[in-house]
Design goal:
mainly alpha, single chain
């Protein structure tokens, strides 16, 4: 295998591993969203508050804001890793096609090796 092609494949595999990890983190945080929300809602046991007020207090709480900021950061990282993977994948495919085309021309005697 051509060294450039091999390097591109290694970079693609490394990015795939990174993407897998960032997707897992984002999914884990997303799965915790309802749990965190429910826990914060249950802390507000004041019977004088209606549900809309309780929800507003949950969304305004620092704990919720910190959680959402972490979730947004994880989603952003996942999306960035996904875009980078797509770029590396396209570069690998282009290099592979070039490698195949050059190999085909050599087999036909079109390029002097």
């Amino acid at each position: 295998m051509d060294s450039t092609l091999s390097r591109r494949l290694n970079a693609l595999n490394e990015q795939n591993d990174k993407l897998t990890k960032s997707e897992a983190i984002a999914l884990e945080l997303d799965a915790q969203k309802k749990v965190i929300y429910s826990q914060l809602l249950l802390k507000l046991l004041d019977p004088a508050l209606n549900m809309a007020t309780k929800e507003a207090k949950v969304y305004a709480s620092q704990e919720w804001q910190d959680f959402i900021n972490g979730l947004v950061a994880a989603e952003s990282s996942k999306n960035s890793d996904k875009r980078r993977y797509e770029i590396l994948n396209n570069a690998f495919i282009a290099e592979l096609n070039t490698y195949k085309r050059e190999g085909s021309l050599i087999d036909k005697g079109g390029i002097n090796p």
